[in-house]
Amino acid sequence: MKKTVFSMVLSISLLGASMATASDPALFLAKCGVCHSKGGQAASINPADKAGAVWKKYFERGRHPVDISSISAADLEKIVEFLVAGAADSEKPAAAVIPK
Ligand code: HEC
Q1: Residue 62 sits in which domain range?
Q2: Quick one: which of 12, 49, 68, 78 has the fewest CB in 10 Å?
Q3: How many domains does one find in the chain?
Q4: In a domain, 9, yes or no
Q5: For the whole model, what pTM was predicted?
């Protein structure tokens, strides 16, 4: 019984952690915003620019036009989660994380 309660608490807190990641723009702003910003070297981009399925495939298929291998696979995975959570076809499309 104690074990069950413990694992329930654990899975709820893990769920909380992954939700915080999906809604927290910090990594996206730090890793993508360094180039993608108003007045930066690349145009501003936002989660709502693409549908979730498109974001999932974008980096998997190496569509990004310049080398971003300095971003670790783990960070990129979290950023994709964030992009999908605010994608055009999500419940809360995020169109102004990086202002145009
Ligand atoms: C080293 C600088 C740099 C970093 C870091 C970077 N990008 Fe880019 N990105 C560019 C450049 C340059 C282009 C092509 C020119 C443009 O679109 O303004 C581009 C293009 C894109 C495009 C295509 C734009 C379009 O209109 O289709 C997307 C989408 C994109 N980047 C997303 C991202 C995401 C998400 C991240 C973070 C994981 C990221 N980029 C990190 C420089 C960067």
Answers
A1: 2-85
A2: 12
A3: 1
A4: yes
A5: 0.84
pLDDT value of position 77? 96
DSSP 24: -
Q: For atom 28 of ligand 1, which residue has the closest CA?
A: 64
CA distance 3 to 27: 35
C-alpha dihedral sign at 47, 49, 52, 55: negative
Structure tokens at 6: 């413990």
For ligand 1, atom 15, the nearest C-alpha belongs to 42
pLDDT tens-digit map of 3-60: 665 555 555 555 555 555 688 999 999 999 999 998 899 999 999 999 999 999 999 9
Q: Which atom of ligand 1 is nearest to the CA of 43?
A: 18
| Residue 97 belongs to a domain | no
The structure tokens 């495939």 sit at 57
Q: Residues 34, 91, 63, 44: is their CA dihedral positive or negative?
A: negative
| Res. 82: pLDDT tops 80 | yes
Does 54 map to a domain? yes
